[in-house]
Every structure is written in structure tokens, then in C-alpha cells.
Request: fold
Amino acid sequence: MSDNNESGKLGILVGGGPAPGLNGVISAVTIEARRRKLTVYGIYEGYKWLVQGDEEKFKEHARELRIKDVSRIHYSGGSILKTSRTSPAKVENGVENSVKNLQSLGIKYMVTVGGDDTAYGASEIAKAAKGKIKFAHVPKTIDNDLPLPDEIPTFGYETARHHGTELVKNLMEDARTTGRWYIAVVMGRHAGHLAMGVAKSAGATLAIIGEEFGREGEIKISEVCDVFEAAILKRRAMGHNHGVLVIAEGVAERFNEKELENIPNLRLERDGFGHLRLSEVPLGKVIQQEIKQRFEDRNDNLTLVEINIGYVLRCADPIPFDQEYTRDLGYNTVRYLLSDHPKHQKDAMICVKNGGLNPLPFEDMLDPISHKTRVRYVNIESEGFKVAQSYMVRLEKRDLEDKTLLPKLAEAAKLSQQGFIDRYGYLTE
Reply:
């Protein structure tokens, strides 16, 4: 692959939620583009100003970036360009305005950094630009749910898992010390990679992710509570009255909205992409109240605390893995944009495998039916998932056949042995 050294203008923006390593990408793209004699413009607050018809207002939110502006920001969390959840496709004339505004600034190359919605917005603008602006998207999400090849992680995930593991480890020690239970809600709108990764790394009691209920259809609140309650009862039967239960926030999106609307003091709000604002859905509180009520109905005391550890991870300083990874991504993004290789002329999502460029054309990352960015789900048939589950406390079929354990399970639930099987046996099927 040969790379061109030419004058021109490159734009870069960040969309969606924050993730550790954003500044690393901004830094690496800017430095390499400057080395290639390109002028670099940082576009502030994602697509927010880009989609508007006011050209002057857009230019007020675009700033030229120099090497001195970005040379040391790769150590820091957050984004110097900020971010937003504005969707070009959901704003009237948003896609067309985006093309006009980029052309008014003389942008020839465009770098977008974000998750699935940001990638989809980039693909729509690229399509409307008809080859006049070349796009490269850098996949970012702590959810790790973008369709990168060969299970390559998205940047930010490893840092989020690292810090999330530390938090859950601390909760586990607090639970052991105080004899209480925690429900830890972890981010993951569509997929449960982060919740499972954190729980598996920390050795949490149990993790629940949406994928184990199938990828489509509603999830019953009662069933989620049954899984958690059975785990608590099994821990008690094993002689331990404490633990940490982890759940992916996206499970809430699969709940029946009418059920959610019946929850006292719950307001359902949606973001610019039409998604439920999960921060407004008290997933942990819903589960905590239901499980505590079940124990109270048995005249049983249970200290159960819910805590959300998702949003505290997004702007953490990146660990060395993501510092290095984002350097590779930024460098290869600029190389791809300037490449004259016949295979590198399409707008694409930039992937790095073993340090080398491995681009994924926009059309290959879209679902052929929905025409939206494909989601990478946790493969519940994989060895990695099976390993994770084998170290968790979950009611299993063999527990119901264990003549020593079953009486203890029944006693913990204040049921007969057959009553316990009738009540919770379906969870093992």
C-alpha cells in the first residue's frame, strides 16, 4: 500500500457516549495527518452543529487542531472535542446539511469516532457526499458490540472492564465483610460483553445478560428476579450469605414497556436515536424491590443494595492497552484515507489486527435487513461464556438431583423439596 503526502483538510468528530481512549484517537489522527501535510479540524459536540443549516454556526464549532494541542492528551479520559447523541438521519435535512457544511470548510477527508449509531450516521453522510468526501470510522464503545472481525475489541472496552472489575472486587469484599448483597448494573445497551467481562474477571456471584434470554423478544422482570433469587438461595445453602450480582443495563430495554410504566415514579425518556434513556430506568432498583419483597413475604431478612457502576467508567483515563491501541487506530485511519490502494477507496470502519490495518467497508458492517450497523452479541455457545458460567453460582439441574443440597435449598426458600422444584425448576431447563 502506498500513501500519499498531500495538502488538504481533514475533519474529526466524536459521537455517542464517552469511552476511555477518545483523546488518544484524536491525538493520533491529528499528529499523523499533520505529518502528511493535512490541515486538521476538530468538530465539536459530534453531529450537533454539523447537521444544522446554519453554516456560520457550524464553523464556530470547528477548530483547527495542531500537534501542540494534542501531543499529551492520550493519557486523559473524556474528549477534548466533547460529544453528543445527535443523529443526522433523525434531523430534517440533517444528512444534506452535513455534506454542505463539510464542503464549506473544504473537508476532503472525514474521521468519525463512535459506536453503532455514529457509524450509521457517517455511512449516510458518506453516501450523500457521493465520493467527494472520504470517510473513515473509528469504532468506539465500552459495550464492545460493533462487528469487528475475529473478536477484535473496540477501544475503551478493556479500560472499562479493568476499572469495572476493580469496583466489583471492592463490592465483593464489602459484601463479605458486612454480610450483604449487591446488585451491580453495568453498561451494555444491546450486548452483555462488559457485564460478563467484569463479572468473569472479578469472580462475581452471578451475571445476567440479555443474550441468555435470546436476542429478540421481551424479558420478564419476574424471570430475571427468579434467576437472582435462586442464586441467593443457593449461596445460602452453601453456607454463604453475601455476594454480588451483576446485570447488563440493556436487559431493561427488553422489559415490557407497560410493565415499566407501572413502576412508581418512573419516567420513560428517549434520546435522539429513539432509545430509552437507560439512565432513567432504575433497573437495579426494580430488581432490588422485587427480591426484597419476596424475602419479606417469607419473614426472611435480606440486605440488598443496588448500585450502577456503568457511567463512572466512560471517562476513566485509558489503561496502556487502550493508549497503545488508539495510537494504532489513529495512525492507520490516516493511512487508509490517504491510500491509493484499489481496495482502500471505499468509506470504511477502521480495524487493527495484530498492529496492521484491516478495514471493514461501510456496506459490510450494515445488517442487510435493518440496514443499521450490525451488533456483535455475546456468543452464549462459546467456550469463553461457558467458562464464565461455570464459575458462577446459578441454579443447575444437578442441584435438584443432589440429595444433600436440595434439602438445604428448600429450607432456604422455606419450601418443601418438591415445592422448590416446582417453583424454580424451570430455570434449569
Remarks:
- The domain at 162-314 is CATH 3.40.50.460 (Rossmann fold).
- The CA atoms of residues 169 and 202 lie 6 Å apart.
- The longest helix spans residues 157-178.
